[in-house]
Structure formats: structure tokens, C-alpha cells
Amino acid sequence: MNALAQQQSPLDGTNPAVNITVFAGLILFTLLITYRASSNRNTSDYFAAGGTFSGAQNGIALSGDFLSAASFLGIAGAIAVHGYDGFLYSIGFLVAWLVNLLLVAERLRNTGRFTMGDVLSFRMRRRPVRAAAAVSTMFITVAYMVAQMAGAGDLVALLLDIHSSSGQALVIAVVGVVMVFYVLIGGMKGTTWVQILKAAMLLLSVSLITLFLLGKFGFNFSDLMQRAAQNNPLGERVFAPGAQYGESALTKLDFVSLSMALVLGVAGLPHVLMRFYTVPNSREARRSVVWATWLMSLFYLCTLVIGFGSAALVGTETIRNAPGEENSAAPLLAYEIGGTPLLGVISAVAFATILAVVAGLTLTASASFAHDFYANVVRGGRADPDSEVRVARITAMVMGAAAIIGGILVNGQNIAFLVGLAFAIAASANLSTLLFTLFWKRFNTSGTLWGMYGGLGSCLLLMLFSPVVSGAPDSIFPSVDFSFFPLSNPGIVSIPVSFLCGIIGTFVRPRSADPADFDEMEVRSLTGIGSRDVVG
Amino acid sequence: MSDTTPPPLRARHGERGEKTHASFGGIEKSAARGGNTGPDFTGIAGSAEFGELRSRLKRFVLPMTALFLLLYLGYVLLAAYAPDFMGEPVFGNINVGLLFGIGQFASTLLITTLYVRFTARRVDPEVDELRETTGGGQR
What we know:
Chain A is built from 21 helices and no strands. By secondary structure, chain A is an all-alpha fold. Chain A has helices at 16-38, 45-48, 55-66, 69-82, 84-95, 97-111, 116-120, 126-160, 165-216, 221-230, 249-265, 270-274, 282-313, 316-321, 329-378, 385-409, 415-439, 445-464, 491-508, 515-527, 532-535. Chain A has a single domain, classed as Up-down Bundle (Sodium/glucose cotransporter), CATH 1.20.1730.10. The longest helix of chain B has 39 residues, at 96-134.
């Protein structure tokens, strides 16, 4: 990236100090509002909410959780640079919600109390299953956070106009530390309100930019695409699929693999699953998924216009040379349209997005680790509350540090792609066991553990030996090559492996789990009978 | 229920949760189960009403899941292996692939709407009735 340091800044004519002041002012304003809005609420609202949020509110927060920096910065950039192939992310992220709506959301709400581990361990031996759930949650969370940290670093580097790799690494580290600090000090309080506020701001600004772009081209999307093709070295290839993934049989397979991870990963994301517990009952859980689906359809349609729009107005070359590369497309477009003020607004919205997602992720994962793993497994349930909270805090810090290091290593990669990897882990580790435990009576503890560890292990191993880590020019370690797995997303292998492991593991043990427990779970998951005393 | 009965420590989690709310918002509470005094789940599971509800849900949910997964898979395979067909212009620069992509949005929203209507008409009333007859508590 040093070669680009001499290039003209894409934000020519602006002062980094002004950019960052507008940006920081808006961030502080947002945090202040959310702090005030939430300060009179009980802290337990967020997790144990037990009825405080309506389906509509929760649906907005749910879309807020899900529309991370990857959806906004990553997809816009992918479409701006690769054209149609970037649109796949939008479609995969959206269609995936049908898995939640039809199979998971309501049953999960009725069966569990707070974490995914509740449902997975419902009719199994609790300790090993909870431990496995905590482990998979940790890996998914860190992978997801790496992408968010990289996005936050890219954003601030763009605003400050920092081109050198070491400067960007420093930015990621500082931004990451600030985020973890925010979570540790008291991020719990406002997270749901940050999500609601941020989702509203994100949807509003994205819709307005889309309307503006379409208006500029006389509401003729075809003309907008034409201009995008003119400003992209790929030319009219951006109209059809294949510009990024069409090269060879392997890249095509990679495309299919990625699309599988996207559609099957959402139902395994711990921070999304957790949102089904913040509503009073399963009908509100259903309502919130419906709300989220409609809001996200609107959002993802806008990403198509914004992606092509940034190629049309900013130009693909300028985007590629900016700090943050592809991830800078949307902020650069904002600058092109509305100058420094709009750049500040869009960057602040994106940053608030990242902050809220990181806060939610960190808290879910660290608390799940402290409770499920430390208190119940390590201490056999004899941990005192203070040490449990201390472990949660330390876990949050360790995860933050891991995410910062990861973020620095993957700096420059498209964050939608990085989130695709987190989705692959989620789909491999959690989806098979979740579906088996809900729908398959014979499924037992052994099958649960095989499915989770088999899926998680195969997914992580394949990622380690893929071109993402070594052997390719844009790998994390480009100078060494120990890759033997050719696909950059392992989903197409590791997801079937996890289902297979779940089946094999189940039949390794002669007995199924207690059938009475399956009856209870089925009755509860479909009707909610008995779930009231859980919420109490 | 031998290996799944909540150990006594589970009861203590509730008390502990109170003390640690300020930091983790009750996250450390676990899903305490109803215990032995709860409804007769095996009885309900074996009842004709519940069997009808279960198969009714399955008859809707499983075909719909298969449908949307097949639609999605078909779309992805076309995008990967038939880019020329997807690039076929329909009007202006709007091509088949773009229309199919928008079609995925439409089918997702359609299935969502169908499911909401199905549950409102055929599932929720049944569930309410079942909850009343079994004394499963009110919503």
C-alpha cells in the first residue's frame, strides 16, 4: 500500500481535522442521546428483557444488529468494484432470514431463556454442551469482530487520510481499544437503543442517498449502471455475474460455497439468536423477524443503487486507491454528493453501527463464556458472582485484543467477505445441532458434541489452510504458502461435515436423549406452554 | 430426566443474577426449567390436538423451506455457471440476472407474508385453544 502513498487523496480539498471533528461530534451526540434515553431503564432490559420490547422495536434493533459495517461499507464496495457479484451478499443476507422465520425464531424463543446454549442443552447433558456452545460462540464472535474492527479502522483512516499500513494498523488498534473500553465501562445500557437509533439513521440516510442517486439519473437505473460501467475498468462485465468469481471452475465453486455460508449462517449467529429473547413471546419474535425482513429488503435494494452509484460518481480506481480500499466506497460517495457534512454523517452512522455491533457481540460472547464455560464447567457451578463478572470482563478484553490483531492482519480485505467467513463458522458450528435438536428425536449429547466440534474444527482448519491465510498475494501471510484448500470460503465442505458429524455422533451412542425431554421441548417450542414460568 | 434435571445450583443463579445486574444484565441466569410441577408435556405431546398442530406446521414449514432453498440454490447456480444467460439484457442495461436477483427479494417477502397469514389463521388460534385446555398459562 506504500506505493499508493504518493497518490492524490480521494478526499482532495478537505481537511482531515474538519472531517474528524464533524465525525467525532456526531458520534458523541449519538452516544449522549442513547445514554440519556436509556439511563432511566433497568440494566437488565437488554438481555433478560422479558417483555420490554415490542415486535416492531425489536425488529428494528434486530436489523440494527444484523446490518453491520459489512452490509453497509462492504457490500457497497463490493458492488462498486466487482459489480453484480457483490449483489450476492445482499441476496444471501436477506434470504437467510427465512431460515430464522420458518424454523428457528419462534421455537428458540419458546424453548430457551437467554443463550443458544439453553436450547442446545435443553435435553442433553448440560455441561459439555454448554461448554461447546460457549466455544463456538467465542470463535464466531471473534471472527465477526475482526471484520468490524477492520471496517472501523478503514473508516477512520479514510477520514484522517492515512495511507501507510503501519498508520492504519495504529488506527485500528486505537479504535479497537476505544470500543472495548466503551463496552467495559457501561455499553450494556444503551446497546438496544443504539441499535434502534442507528438502524433508523442508517435506513434513512441510505434511502435518501438512493433517492438522490436515482434522481440524478432521471430515475433511470439503466443509465446509472451505464455510467458505473464507464468508470470501472471491468466495463460492462459488471452488469452480469462472473466479474469477480467467474475466472475458473474453482472460483465458481468458491462463489457457491460463499452463498451457502451466507444463507445458512444467520441462524447460527449468537448475537442474532439472542435477540429472539428480548421480546415477551414467540409471536412477538415472529413479528420482529418480519419487521427486520422488510426493513432489510429496503436496505439491500438501496445497497445495489449505492454500489453502482459510487462506481458512477466516484469511480472504481479512486475507490481502490483510497485508504480502506473497497470499504471506502460509501463514504466517498457521501462526500461526492454532500461534501464534508454528509461524509461526517455517513461515517458517524457507519461507526455507530460498528460500535453497537461490537458491543453486542462482546457482551454476548464474554458473558456466555463466563457463565457457560467458567462458572458451570471450570468451577462446576461454584463460582461466586464477582469472579464470574471478572472473568467476563477479562474475556471481553482478550477477545477485543484478538479482534484488533485480526483486524490489523486482514486490513484491506473487503469486510463483507470477512463477515462471510464468520457466517461459515456459524453455519458449520451451530446450525446442524440447532436443527437436529429441534426436529430429530433420536439426537443425543454425543451427536451434539460431534456436530459442533466437527463443524467448527473442519471450518477453522480449512480456513487456516486456505488462500485467505497464505499463498496468495492478498493473503494474511503472502510470503509463505501452506495452503492446500483452494476455496476462500469453506462453507460448502464444512457445513455438510457438521451435519454428517451430528448424525454419526448420534449413532455412536446406542441411546437417544430422554424422549420425555423431547416431548417437553416440542410442546414448548410449538405452543410456548411452560415457557411463562421461565420468563417469570 | 436423570441427566437433564437441573442441579440444585440452578436455583441459586436467580439470586446471583440480582447482584450482578449492573454489569451483565442478568445474562448469567440460565434457563431454569419448570420442574416436576409443570404441565404434563408427554400427555400433551401425545394428544390428537397437538399432533394435528404439529403436522399442520410441518406441512407448511418444510415445503416452504425446501422451496426457498431451491429457489436460492437455483439462482446461485445460474449466477455461477450461466453468466451469459444472466447477462442477457431485458431492457437497457437491466438484465436477466438483475431481475432474478430482485426476484429473490420478492420471493422472500412473499414467503414471509404467506407464513404470517398461515400462522395467524391456522396456528395461533389452535395454540391458544391448546394452552387453555391444558392450563398452560396465558400470554
